[in-house]
Amino acid sequence: MMIIKQEPTNLHNKKIILMNLLKRYNLKFYITLLLLVAFQACNEDDIKTYPPPTIADVNVDFYLTSPDQANLLKSTTNGLFPMVTNSNFTINVTESTSYQEMDGFGYTLTGGSAMLINNMSVSSRSELLQELFGTGDNSIGISYLRISIGASDLDATTFSYNDLPSGQTDENLDNFSINPDMSNLVPVLNEILAINPNIKILATPWSAPTWMKDNNSTIGGALLPQYYNTYANYFVKYIEAMAAQGITIDAITIQNEPENPYNNPSMVMSADQQKDFIKNNLGPVFQTENISTKIILFDHNLDNPDYPISILNDASAKSYVDGSAFHLYAGQISNMSLVHNAHPDKNVYFTEQWIQAPGDFYSDIRWHVRELIVGAPRHWSKNVLQWNLAADPNSNPHTDGGCTECLGAITIDGNLVQRNPGYYIIAHASKFVPAGSVRIESNTSFEFPNVAYKTPDNKIVVIVLNNSDVQNSLNINVETQPISVTMPAGAVATFVW
Question: What is the pLDDT of residue 432?
């Protein structure tokens, strides 16, 4: 009798069915996988690839100075690209929002600076002055100079334009003469004017003639009230004498550092004394003699903004005054805005800041660019001036009691010229921001202090400092060509569209 076992047969059939199903689904799997690979390959063929952007894609000039001095006002393309979406800080430049018109950037051409330049050979001097004051590719375009009325402490000796034997006076100024300037300062100025006839010149006394002072000394002391009118005429004679030499004095300050009695030369003048001198003597005499030279107040540190404000609060004195000038050996650069806001119809100027010899390129560049090149114009200054243009390798010349550690923007040793931090600090502005440029709106940050301008020929200029100790990237959003850029630690850059 045959016994048929149904269950094993059914199980066998189920296994066959299951295997067939697995084969079917494995086939689907492999087909799907194959299709996915083919699709991906097809997509890769269709995706466009782009090479990294190059400088050819960016229509902007980029000039860089780095603290390691590997780049010194160097035109470069490194790290510069069209702006892309990223998380970097972005400087947004708004051309439609404008502020003050700039008078220029430069230095004090001290008597000592003029002597060193004038003692160079004709060819070396000509080449240097063209570099400093010209507008060519190898020039830095200095557009503003400060000079001293009589000696500053960076002349070889003290002098005024009316020095007399002890006990003598000369109220009519019959003995007035700018002869001490005829050997070096006037000839150098005339060579400069031949290169840039429109350069603005600010003139500042360090002291009145000693016979006009209450201590009869070149150091400290105050102007005697009986000589206020005589001293006002002293300014007139000076301006007219310089004009006779072809030198236009655009503006004067009444006294260099009127709160400093220690320099040689120096003279103190309180705010009340300066106010009285302006409204009762200097202003009326300028008006009577048709002197158009601007009168600028104070010319001292930003720790005392009340000094110029108190004078400007006097309507009579204010009527003769163009504005106020400042140094930053004390105080905060933002105090310039305090003075501007108190009297927005009057100008503010930044007229002096030294660099101590032998200099520290890293810290000097950072501090001076942040506080002066960026900070002063953002607080309404119409100019920025560093201290002395030139000194020799030993920080000479200077008076007995004058500055012994003032590093020139350049060091002159015979015909040899060394360019120091002050040269590059000013050059990053003077070369690209000519007189008549207008500051325009740009947002700023601690990491990237900056200032923006529109020039008379409608170029956009942005000066930026990487105010950090690491390499950093940022964007600059301008209407014409937004960019992304990477800057070395502590570097300063100027961008021109």
Answer: 98
